[in-house]
Design a protein that fits this description.
Elements (H helix, E strand, L loop, with lengths): L1 E3 L12 H5 L1 H21 L8 H5 L10 H4 L7 H22 L1 H25 L11 H14 L4 E5 L7 E5 H20 L9 H17 L4 H17 L3 H14 L3 H13 L3 H12 L6 H11 L9 H13 L3 H12 L7 H14 L3 H14 L1 H5 L2 E4 L5 E4 L8 H4 L1
Antiparallel strand pairs: 1-2, 2-3, 4-5
Length: about 400
Amino acid sequence: MAGAGSILWPSSSSRGYFSKVAPASLCLAALTFSLSTLEFSGRLGWTSLPPLTDSLGYRPGAGPLWGLWTAVFVHADFSHLMGNLVPFLLMAPKVEKEMGSGRFLSVLAVAVPISVACQSLLLVHQADGSRPLIGFSVITSFVFGAYWLRQPVATLTLRWLPSETVRATIPVWAACLLWLFYQIVLAALQSLSFNNPATQPFAHIAAFSAGAGTALVFKFPMRYRLEVWEQESFRLWQEGHQAQALSLCDKKIAAAPSPRLLLTAAHWHLTRNEDESAEGRVREALGFPRWDQSALSAARQLIRHPAVTRLAPDLLLDLAIRLEKEALFPEADSLFHWIGSLTWYQQAPQALLRSARIREQMDQPDAARLQLHRFWFYFAPLRTGFRLGPCKNGSSKRVGEKGCERNVWRRS
């Protein structure tokens, strides 16, 4: 089983992923694996330890009382252990990051014994308390319930190994609901004594309900949900779902606008030939007094877009001035240069002079001189009354009240 979308196995390059993002999940998984391994070694005769199932498991109607909490740390066999830990490690870090480690453990400390008690009540009623209740599946069920409500756009990709040609991608919420339906069927069969009491469907349903209720009742931090929206929008854009990506991006902008997201949305609107929407996003970004490095990176990508010249010259001039202020000289110069080529535009002379100044700052005197030449050639005659005309020597010089003794290129 591998993840796609929001369910991704932490990459090996992400150093300290669990210790930084989900320390509680890491501790729970490590403790469960260690105790279950000791249990397995005792059964195989590798160690002389007594069975942990008797001391940590919970027998309905017989206890011990602490077994309501400790029963989740022991398992029947290795497949039972990994079947519970793998889905837990896939989803629990995101749930813990959203809830916070303290709240995550506090809610589990209440939900786990209640869920185990729900299952034990049925077994006591059926006079079947010989088999202890064990397994981490109660906590995994809680994570299922919290995850599917908080990650509605996540997907799960199932692959048949070793072949990668057969795969199926389904939404996480659909997988969780199918799992819940399966547990309800098992609970109905078990209540009629038609099912093996080794399964714990009532505990699973109770833990799933506790997780879903926690996701609905607690007001989780908005910051993490915004991160999810942003990640999903970029993923959808890369997969070609442009409308959905822009919808999620606009949703985050409405909740917490930032220059980076606004410039990214402008880039996407340009790609979709939505020039008016792109201009609106750029104007909103220019309204922010400060741009961080991520916003400057988004601005670079926007300037490199081949359709950026379709935007209004006034807006591009403001953007170029802002880029010059943020010391993005090459990007600002490219905009000033293009604006200066619009001879009909009133601010074109200013753009050429700014371009010349930027090139001088970048230690490109020849390029700066060329921009000044363009300025004098295109715009100085309009302001001074000078005209270009032939001199006696046949070269192109300024003709006017000052005569033609100075070459236009030297004068610049």
